[in-house]
């Protein structure tokens, strides 16, 4: 099996907004996000502004974004948001890097970084049922399909001791 590429996650900064905008306006990337359509510039600006806000981490809605880099090149974004039921994670990989194990390496990094940031291992992800690649990626890393809510499958990280 191919080794995943070495990926580093660093806090998202304003200078990363153009990279994110490129993905958010690409229909290949947004196909499984929200309504499945590329985002307009106002939505992109609003999301970037919220990502940079850095609300207190114990507040519902607080989020932290991370730029995923391979050898100093941006390859994706990891998003985390505190919800009442835990920390929701999401990940976007730039299409130029699909098929190389980048998403898995990003989630591996998220499983280390995000619990440290939020002081919680209660992680979950919501996945479009048609996104079988993402579902497999999560289950291989200890997530379990819990329920379908509002048309999305919810995968919850199962504690190692369970």
TrEMBL record:
Residues 7-162 form the N-acetyltransferase domain. It holds the Pfam family Acetyltransf_3. PROSITE patterns: GNAT. SUPFAM superfamilies: Acyl-CoA N-acyltransferases (Nat). CDD domains: NAT_SF. Coiled coil: none annotated. PANTHER family: GNAT FAMILY, PUTATIVE (AFU_ORTHOLOGUE AFUA_3G00765)-RELATED-RELATED, N-ACETYLTRANSFERASE DOMAIN-CONTAINING PROTEIN. This is RimJ/RimL family protein N-acetyltransferase.
């Amino acid at each position: 099996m191919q080794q995943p590429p070495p990926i580093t996650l660093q806090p998202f900064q304003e200078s990363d907004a153009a990279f994110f905008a490129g993905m958010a306006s690409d229909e290949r990337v947004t196909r499984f996000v929200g309504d499945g359509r590329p985002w307009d510039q106002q939505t992109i600006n609003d999301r970037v502004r919220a990502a940079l806000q850095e609300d207190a981490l114990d507040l519902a809605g607080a989020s932290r974004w991370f730029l995923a880099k391979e050898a100093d090149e941006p390859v994706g974004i990891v998003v985390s948001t505190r919800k009442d039921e835990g920390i929701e994670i999401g990940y976007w990989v730039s299409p130029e890097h699909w098929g190389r194990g980048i998403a898995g390496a990003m989630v591996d990094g998220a499983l280390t970084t995000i619990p440290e940031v939020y002081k919680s291992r209660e992680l979950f992800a919501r996945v479009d049922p048609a996104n079988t690649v993402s579902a497999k990626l999560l289950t291989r890393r200890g997530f379990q399909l819990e329920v379908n809510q509002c048309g999305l499958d919810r995968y919850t990280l199962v504690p190692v001791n369970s």
